[in-house]
Design goal:
Length: 306
């Protein structure tokens, strides 16, 4: 292996995985590092009470043509399914309504399974980088995390979210089928039926807090569980859950976006690339923009090397 000609990718979320796959396809040797025990980043689907639960991204959309080709392959392999195009909307002080939008896609095995599939023949080393590795390098993560390793041009900030998974005996009487946007609520922003999106019908909801509530509880995220479960019970008129699991996303969603899909510079004789969902000129940072960012960065690296 010609490591001096390889590229080290720090971050094995969707952006880093997409970059690794595209570089590998172009014949470039890659080394992927992630501080997590498993790849996936914000596409996180840990096993809770014997079943995978999507604790980060809850679904994905498919507007990008290149991403659509990949999703068609996943669809054929049974890794993804069309979930719904209609969510409930709970506006403060208003009766619930529904809102239709793009098709939202789900996965039978959790969204992390897609990053795993992309990286199925690429080794990921579990390692936290405190400094920038040598040689050509890609840093694929939120800007505040990347800024610990290098100077990020016009770094954008991120909003936190705390996700609370709630397991019930049954969810009869739930006033929505798939998911609900919650607007104007002091504690909740979104609640999804995890059994509906995963397709197994399990009585599990995942509630996302508002950014404000998350910001106030970043030091002790577990403290937020009673507030969230009471809010869910009250809003949807259902029982309190049998179990809960709390996950803190300090850097959940970029509050602004860069105007290009990636950044590549040459410094001290080596290439340094930046990718992630914040590199999103379309203005809607999400799973598909992270894929686009990593894919575009790989193409730019290949072009720069030739
Ligand atoms: C609560 C929540 C809900 C969301 N809902 C949706 C949704 O419904 N639909 C949608 O499309 N998108 C959604 N998203 C956004 C989506 O998850 C992201 O756009 C996408 O996963 C970002 O991928 P990424 O590769 O850019 O970053 P990440 O997934 O954050 O990957 C960065 C990786 O870098 C690693 N890392 C960081 N620092 C270091 C270090 N020093 N050394 C080594 N490794 C490091 C991390 O462990 C991580 O694996 C949601 C996100 C959250 C948090």
């Amino acid at each position: 292996m010609r490591t001096e000609r390889g590229v080290t990718i720090v971050g094995a979320g969707m952006a880093g995985a997409a970059c690794a796959v595209a570089l590998r396809a172009a014949g470039v040797e890659v080394r992927v590092l992630d501080r997590g025990r498993v790849p996936g980043g914000r596409m996180s689907s840990p096993a809770l009470h014997d079943r995978r639960v999507d604790l980060g991204a809850g679904y994905f959309t498919v507007r990008d043509k290149g991403f659509a080709e990949l999703v068609a392959r996943w669809d054929k392999a049974g890794l993804v399914h069309r979930w719904t195009d209609t969510f409930a909307v709970f506006d403060a002080g208003e009766p619930p309504r529904t809102s239709s939008g793009p098709t939202r896609w789900g996965t039978p095995a959790g969204l992390r399974s897609l990053v795993r599939e992309l990286l199925s023949d690429i080794e990921v080393t579990s390692s936290t980088c405190d400094t920038l590795p040598s040689g050509d390098v890609v840093v694929a993560m939120p800007d505040p995390q990347a800024a610990r390793l290098l100077a990020v041009p016009d770094a954008v900030d991120y909003q936190p979210v705390i996700a609370v998974a709630c397991g019930y005996r049954d969810l009869g009487g739930l006033p929505f089928t798939d998911a609900a946007f919650v607007n104007g609520h002091p504690h909740l922003s979104f609640v999804a039926h995890d059994g509906a999106r995963r397709g197994d019908g399990a009585p599990v909801l995942v509630a996302h807090t508002t950014g404000e509530l998350a910001a106030a509880h970043l030091a002790a995220p577990d403290d937020v569980a009673p507030t969230v479960t009471s809010a869910v019970s009250e809003l949807f008129d259902i029982d309190t859950p049998d179990w809960t699991h709390v996950h803190r996303w300090t850097f959940a969603k970029p509050v602004a976006q860069h105007e290009s899909s990636h950044h590549l510079s040459m410094a001290e004789g080596r290439l340094i690339g930046l990718a992630g969902d914040q590199w999103c000129p379309q203005g809607a940072p999400r799973v598909e923009s992270a894929w686009r960012s990593g894919t575009d960065l790989a193409a730019a690296i290949v072009a720069a090397r030739s």
